[in-house]
Structure formats: C-alpha cells, structure tokens
Design brief:
Elements: H1 2-5, E1 7-11, E2 14-18, E3 26-28, E4 34-36, E5 46-50, E6 56-60, E7 66-70, E8 73-76, E9 81-83, H2 133-136, H3 163-166, H4 193-196, E10 215-218, E11 221-224, E12 229-231, H5 238-256, H6 261-266, E13 278-279, E14 282-287, E15 294-297, H7 335-345, H8 352-357, H9 370-379, E16 392-398, E17 403-408, E18 413-418, E19 429-431
Parallel strand pairs: 2-4
Antiparallel strand pairs: 1-2, 1-7, 3-4, 5-6, 7-8, 8-9, 10-11, 11-12, 13-14, 14-15, 15-19, 16-17, 17-18
Length: 432
C-alpha cells in the first residue's frame, strides 16, 4: 500500500499524490475525499491543491507531511496515525460489505441480469418453466389432479351425457324417445275425438251441442246458455210456490228428497222439528246428535196383544227389577236384542214382540225397550204426533217370569203388567 501510493499529502480535506506523471485528474472515492494528480511529473517544492470549497490554492511541499495507509490505519510522517472506521457509514452495523452502492460498482450482480435478452423472461405464458402440475395439465384450473378431462364444461362440449338426456327432449326418463314427453295442449297429438269436439267433455259423441248448459228463468221464459229458450206460461209463479211449500213442510220435504236427519239437524234445524216427521216407514222420535243414529216408531199394529210366555222367565232376556227400570234390557238400544231373545225363547203366536218383528219387512223392526218407549211418549204422544193414544203400551223389557214393563201414556208412568194380559197396545220400532 505504501509503495503503490508513493507520496501523499493531506490539506483541507484533500489528498495529494506526488511523483505521478503529468496528467491532471480528479477521482471520486467513497465520501467527500478527493484525490488529484500533481501539476507536473517532476519533483517540485510546491503543488496546486483544490480546497474544500472548490478553489485552487498553491502550497509549498515543505509545509506538508507525508501519509501512508496500512489496512485500516492512516499514518502521517510526523508520527500521528488514525484508525479509519470499518465502513465509514453511520448505520446499524460495521459491515462495509452491505452498504448502498451505485449499479456500476455493485458486486455480485447475477449473470442473467444484464444487458442482453438471451436468458430473460419473454413475457409469454408458453415460455414459463417449473409450472405446478395442476396448472400445467392444460385445463388452466388449480385442482386436485392433472386430468383435463374431468373439468367443468359447457353443455355443448360435455362428454358422456346419458342417452336419456342427450335424446333431445332434455328430460331424464326411461327412453330416448322425445316424441312421448309431456306437451302443451296445442302440440299434443292423438287427442280423442270426444275431447277434440270443442266441448272439453269426455262423452260418448263428438257433438258439442248436446252438453249440459246453464238454465235461467226470466218471467215466463226459460233460457239456455247457448241461446235457446222456451216460454212456459205461469212458470214465473213457481219460485213463490216452492218457497211457500218449503216454509210449511221444509223438514219433511228435505227428508223426502234424501237428506238424513243428522244432516238436517247439523244445518241448524232444531231437534224437535224432526220429531214426528215420517222417515223409513215410521215417525222419528229419537236422534243421537253426536253419532247421527236414531229411531222411528210405526203406526198402530193392532188393538191389543199379550206379552206372552206366562209364567216363564226367558233366559235370553235380562230381568230388570226395582221400582225404576235401569240397566241391561232397559236402555235405549236394548229393544232389538230383547226382541231377538223373546223371538227365540217364546214360541207363542200373536204376542207383542212377534207382531213388532213381523211388521213391514219382518227383519228391521222390534218391540221397544222401556226407555225407548218413554222417548216415544215424551217426544211424540205428548206433542200429539204419531197417532198415539192415552193407553198402556208394552215394552220388550222383562221384569220376572210373570211381569214385563209397560208405559202408561196417559199419566207418563212406567208400570209393570202381567205377561198374560191382553189389554196392552203394541208399536214397532226400527233404528237408522
């Protein structure tokens, strides 16, 4: 270092080198220090120097000291030396190898960053290297495989469409025939002639002129919706006549027209308005408004009859004892089974139970139980309905081997009567 520098002089922050060849030069180095060549190539006793403010000055050589550098130490000829900072930069470390430099002095520039384009990226997607397989597979999709055949596609490019979809009807059905799909009415083929006739009714002919039509009445003229009409003199009075008739006989008319008692009751008709109306060959006297079941009683069967089989206790008929008949054999609904028991255990002819059973069809009718007979008395006889008289009527309820229960309609009393008595009246009952 000392030999290569020859003689150096330091003045005003400027380093001067002596004994250089005559060629003035100015060399920039790191920091504010500048080095200049001497004004001539011969040994001299003076030098021109450039001061720190940029001006040129003249200095005698004997006023200068010589300087030498060894590694990071600067030595002066007067014995003074200075150890230079490692990187001469005020930063966070003392490493001179990581300082900011100009591009021209930057070391370690990669060989592929240069002024030629032979090894640089062209900017073309096709020139990329080391692409991930899921991008390089050709489908441009980052997915789990490299198979471009299983990507989402448009319908027109989709392979392997099932035949029942690809058949052209766009319906997933059991065949590939697009001619049997659901269609609109206007495109539907093979419509039966009785539908195509224009009346939209599937009937036996193709004539739309004989279909059901709406009817109207205006005065004495009856009109049809297709434009036909007929004049019937006096028909204008029909609505008033029908209304008057229904007001007087509405419940009975409704029964005659096929409505059931429970339907009429549920329409808002009072229950007692049904009592005494004829239905199923008898007079209505009982209706269960929950189940809709009820009973009717027949007209008079004969003047009088015996209960029968005195003094035999019929095994098939329950005995109902006590002063007030209650329990099996006495309740509403027991008349039919009582009559069955009498009919099977008592062979005597002409008795009350057989008169009841043999009434009309001979199957559905029976002699009423004592509580059924009470309903006939209260709901019909006491209201003057059903043609009942102030007499004593047999029930099918047996009390003992000698007695059976009767109802005295004159005094509304339950009584007992000798089975062999022939002075009691008989009515038959049926259920619906």
């Amino acid at each position: 270092m000392k030999q290569s520098l020859r003689t150096l002089a330091l003045a005003s922050g400027i380093l001067f080198c002596a004994n250089f060849s005559l060629s003035a030069q100015l060399v920039d180095v790191e920091g504010p220090i500048k080095i200049s060549a001497p004004i001539n190539a011969t040994t001299a006793d003076s030098m021109l120097v450039i001061l720190g403010d940029g001006t040129v000055a003249y200095r005698m050589l004997d006023s200068l000291v010589t300087m030498s550098i060894s590694n990071d130490t600067l030595f002066l000829s007067n014995g003074v030396f200075i150890v230079l900072p490692p990187d001469q930069v005020d930063d966070a470390d003392n490493d001179p190898t990581n300082e900011v430099e100009t591009w021209s002095t930057l070391a370690g520039i990669p060989v592929n960053i240069d002024i030629d384009a032979t090894d640089d990226f062209s900017g073309d997607y096709n020139d990329l290297i080391n692409m991930p397989p899921d991008f390089a597979d050709g489908d441009d999709v980052d997915d789990a495989d490299n198979d471009p055949t299983n990507e989402i596609e448009t319908w027109s490019t989709l392979a392997g469409i099932p035949a029942d979809i690809a058949d052209g009807d766009d319906v997933d059905d059991a065949d590939n025939d697009p001619s049997n799909e659901i269609e609109t009415w206007s495109t539907l083929a093979g419509i039966p002639a009785d539908i195509l006739d224009g009346d939209d009714v599937d009937d036996a002919d193709n004539d739309p002129s004989n279909e059901l039509q709406m009817i109207g009445i205006s005065g004495d003229t009856v009109t049809l919706e297709n434009g036909g009409y007929v004049v019937i003199e006096g028909i204008s009075m029909l609505p008033a006549l029908v209304n008057a008739f229904l007001q007087r006989n509405s419940v009975q008319v409704r029964l005659d027209l096929g409505e059931t008692p429970i339907e009429i009751f549920n329409s808002g008709t009072p229950l007692d308005s049904l009592y005494g109306k004829t239905y199923l060959g008898g007079f209505i006297f009982h209706l269960d408004t929950v189940s809709g079941e009820g009973m009717v009683v027949s007209g008079n069967l004969s003047a009088t009859a015996k209960w029968g089989c005195f003094p035999t206790d019929l095994a098939a008929v329950p005995n109902v004892t006590g002063s007030n008949p209650e329990g099996p054999g006495a309740e509403i609904g027991d008349g039919a089974s009582n009559t069955d028991g009498i009919y099977s255990d008592c062979g005597q002819a002409g008795i009350a139970a057989k008169l009841a059973r043999d009434h009309d069809d001979g199957v559905s009718w029976y002699l009423p139980s004592i509580k059924e007979l009470v309903q006939i008395d209260l709901n019909l006889h006491n209201n003057g309905l059903g043609g009942l008289v102030n007499g004593v009527y047999w029930s099918s309820t047996e009390r003992s081997n000698t007695d059976a229960w009767v109802r005295n309609f004159q005094f509304d009393l339950n009584q007992t009567g000798i089975k062999d008595s022939s002075t009691r009246r008989t009515r038959a009952v049926r259920s619906f």
